[in-house]
């Protein structure tokens, strides 16, 4: 196992690479005179105009998730249901019932034909979107399932549990056992993300682990505080990690170098979501004080503290290509767009 040590942030350091890291580079001409600054492009707009608030009728909403193209969303309820919505229209499309306890996470397949979900009943469920029926129910975890993801082809579901394992389930096979079990974590798994050849996992043991499936390697970075959420940057070169010390950290995926730290929000008790905006320009996080926080990725400065509602903002989801944000507070979700957004029907 390779263990990357935590280091102090280095912003504006020569030699960093690719799009996110390049944004942190020294901006002068290397080995030459400083260039005249180019006109500063207009900054990206942040979603801060509330378009809709939907009462989901699921008691508490534990998670909200966009589908692959951002046209629909899923809400996970403490009432054991999973619901599919058109968030901009505010319409409920289907309710999925089959879990024995609260639903904690869900994900959609690349072709929108299937859903997977996990929850407090320790089960991982594969659903048919169109019929609303349970296709398979996978059992084997010894504790509640915090997080679920499809692989890119939607042939495998990966699930992370408080039992400290990640299990990989074959959607096409009738075999009841997982095809693989990743059990390196020393405490519960809070977050799992999947790329074409990598699995990124955050654990309550304070480590973020990256499994390179092509090379068969495991990389581990020690954050120290229990991890609540992890994700890849959109360009795949960095990882964002949130933890219970009310801090988000941006790490170079390959070296583990700490590129930035983002603070100001409150995250000391709950498993809260974080992400990067659709163009990797801002770091975004839920907070226990009823707000969503946006930081400029390069500068590390707080760009916006968006008031959402009373209590904990439990979950968020960022649209894959547009400045559109979904948030979950209590039993409702909120849909946010940029200030200049005009809805197609003329409202908003």
TrEMBL record:
What is one process in the GO biological process aspect for this record?
Answer: mRNA splicing, via spliceosome
The UniProt entry lists the main location of this chain as cytoplasm
Q: Which Pfam families match?
A: WD40 (PF00400)
Please provide the record's keywords in A-Z order: Cytoplasm, Repeat, WD repeat
Q: Which domain of life is it from?
A: Eukaryota
Q: Where in the cell is it found?
A: Cytoplasm
Q: Subunit arrangement? A: Interacts with EGLN3/PHD3. Interacts with ERK signaling proteins MAP2K1/MEK1, MAP2K2/MEK2, LAMTOR3, ARAF/Raf-1, MAPK1/ERK2 and MAPK3/ERK1. Identified in the spliceosome C complex. Interacts with PARD6B and CRB3. Interacts strongly with GTP-bound RRAGA but not with inactive GDP-bound. Interacts with p62/SQSTM1.
PROSITE patterns, from UniProt?
A: WD_REPEATS_1, WD_REPEATS_2, WD_REPEATS_REGION
Q: Which InterPro entries match?
A: WD40/YVTN_repeat-like_dom_sf, WD40_PAC1, WD40_repeat_CS, WD40_repeat_dom_sf, WD40_rpt, WD_repeat_MORG1
In the record, the note on similarity to other proteins reads: Belongs to the WD repeat MORG1 family.
List the PANTHER family hit by this protein, alphabetically.
WD REPEAT DOMAIN-CONTAINING PROTEIN 83, WD40 REPEAT PROTEIN
Give residue ranges of the WD repeats.
54-95, 96-137, 138-170
**Protein's UniProt name:** WD repeat domain-containing protein 83
Lineage of source species: Eukaryota, Metazoa, Chordata, Craniata, Vertebrata
Which GO CC annotations does the UniProt entry carry?
Answer: catalytic step 2 spliceosome; cytoplasm
